[in-house]
Protein: Methylmalonic aciduria and homocystinuria type D protein, mitochondrial
Amino acid sequence: MATRLMSGRAKVVVYLPSLRAAVRHFRAFSSYDERYPSDHTFTVDSDSVLGDSQRQWPNSQLGPLNPRDRHFPLPGLVGTATPQQHQLAAPPVKHHDVDLLTAELPEERRISILHQYLHTSEELEQKELEEEGGLLGEPSPFDVLECAAQQCPALLKKDFQELFPDRDFNQDEVSVITISQKTNSDMIAWSVDMEEEREELMEHFVNASQEICNSLTEAGYWADFIDPTSGRPYIGAYTNATLYETDERYRSLGFTIEDLGCCKVIKHHLWGTHTYVGCLFTNAPMDHPIIQRMKQMRRFNGE
Structure:
């Protein structure tokens, strides 16, 4: 599973070919209602229930004498009981001899069940790792985005509380969603191409984050993201606290911050300094389908 592949802390990671794929996933949950997670509407075809005899009644030859339903041929739609042809005999009682010398003792049975459970769990975990390893372990050559959701580290809750003074992080369960976009340019050295690409990716992140936060809000949760230009919450109230992408706190979220002396740069564990990172916050819990089904995003997008 992604939680075991990526971290000891609850974490879900998926690689995607575009940022729009992530937006579509969260938008699909904008009308999700926890009270009715499987709310479906079913339509019943009355013709298939009533049968041909009722749809053609009265019969053109028999007129009203023809019964509406062949299962109830008597007047008043009364049916006849079907006589039981055979009386079922009681199954013979099997007598088993109890072997007191070789019978499994309760303690031995508990050990056997525990061993079977552990052995089965290991097989299931290995199967899940094999199935999801290709999906979540490494991106394909066409993937240019990593979307990672994880439970907010306890050590950072107090710091992040300063970013959102109108929220109570002591009471809320906070999930952090980081979006890493792979870049063509190396973000470690300035150039015209790097600056233009960075501005474009920044605009994409802001637009996509607004849609994701709107979708989470419509689903009944609080959500906000860090404005890359100011390091402050984009939606929430103004605060003096900031969180830029080279902040040391990103280390606790799975990134490396490299100090070059003249500046700092964030490094992705796969793409190095060829990455642009943004961050969102929400009180949607990690076990919510909107988070857990992130693992299916790539599969549904046909990658």
The radius of gyration is 31 Å. The chain has nine helices and seven strands. Residues 2-31+143-300 form one domain.
